[in-house]
Design brief:
By secondary structure, the protein is of the alpha/beta class. The longest helix is centred in the middle third of the chain and has 19 residues. It is elongated, with a radius of gyration of 22 Å.
Length: 298
């Protein structure tokens, strides 16, 4: 099948590669423009653009997707596949190919429509999530679903680890079902819709006056991006991994305890891995050995 592929981050690379390996002809890849990936660094291509170049596929990088409607129409493709592209597609573009567009979305729709479904599922304490292959329409992840798969969420799993599993399952789901889409009718979404709004750095500031389980979910959801964080003597400290201490320490929220944990409202949080400003990740124990303060946050 001749396809157009729209995607940007690293998690959109395995589905692209799998489609090519399955014998599909990807006529054109559409991805976000080159951007700086680090402070003060040079502009770099998106992971999908880099993969497309290595595969010998033509790439376009529009500022707005409406700019490439003619490119898509002229590609000779019959269907578009979208995986974490990062831009809304206007109605005229959705109608540019004979079989329209399908989207691989990393949630069990209609729960967690939108930009950050994996992180929002962890933050909400969901026990399971999944991936859907859906028809794209003018709404935000509102189209009918061709196929889906469910996954349980491990209690210690970070967003990055969960995404890795979802990408693997979703890639298999896409390759298995892509040919049958033309002869299938997607099922309408049923149930209560929830929206996974875009993540902000500010919402990942740790409030040590919250319960331990909420803090642990915040840390898991923020790993690897944007990272849960707290103040440590006026400097920002990223908190990458934690576990809860069983006994509640006799300390105010944010205070360090004799057990090497940080007090929360209902117990203690042990810092397994942290990253101080301008430094590489390290164990919490190594960081605490050089920290002279008595509390975090504030």
């Amino acid at each position: 099948m001749r396809l157009v592929y729209l995607g940007t981050p690293a998690e959109a690379v395995p589905p692209l590669t799998a489609l090519v390996e399955a014998g599909h002809e990807v006529a054109l890849v559409v991805t976000q423009p080159d951007r700086r990936r680090g402070r003060g660094g040079p502009s770099a291509p998106s992971p999908v653009k880099q993969a497309a170049i290595e595969l010998g596929i033509s790439v376009v990088t529009p500022q707005r997707s409406a700019e490439i409607i003619d490119d898509i129409r002229g590609s000779g493709a019959v269907m578009g596949v979208v995986v974490a592209f990062g831009q809304l597609l206007p109605p005229e573009l959705l109608e540019a190919l004979p079989m329209g567009f399908v989207n691989l979305h990393f949630s069990l729709l209609p729960r967690w429509r939108g930009a950050a479904p994996v992180e929002r599922a962890i933050l909400a304490g969901d026990a399971e999530t999944g991936v859907c292959l859906m028809r794209m329409d003018e709404g935000l992840d509102t189209g009918g679903v061709f196929a889906s798969a469910r996954l349980s969420i491990d209690e210690q799993e970070t967003a990055g680890q969960l995404m890795e599993r979802l990408v693997d399952v979703g890639t298999q789901l896409l390759v298995k079902n892509i040919v049958g889409v033309s002869a299938s009718t997607p099922l309408p979404q049923t149930g209560e819709a929830t929206y996974a709004r875009k993540l902000t750095v500010e919402e990942f500031a740790i409030d040590w006056a919250r319960p331990c389980d909420e803090i642990a979910r915040l840390v898991r959801a923020g790993n690897p991006r944007p990272g849960a964080w707290t103040n440590a003597d006026g400097r920002r400290l990223k908190v990458l991994r934690v576990h809860q201490v069983a006994s509640a320490p006799e300390a105010s929220p944010g205070e360090l305890t004799g057990e090497g944990a940080v007090a929360a409202v209902d117990g203690g949080i042990y810092l397994d891995e942290v990253q101080p400003e301008g430094k590489a990740p390290m164990t919490g124990a190594a960081w605490l050995a050089g920290f002279r303060g008595r509390a975090l946050g504030g």
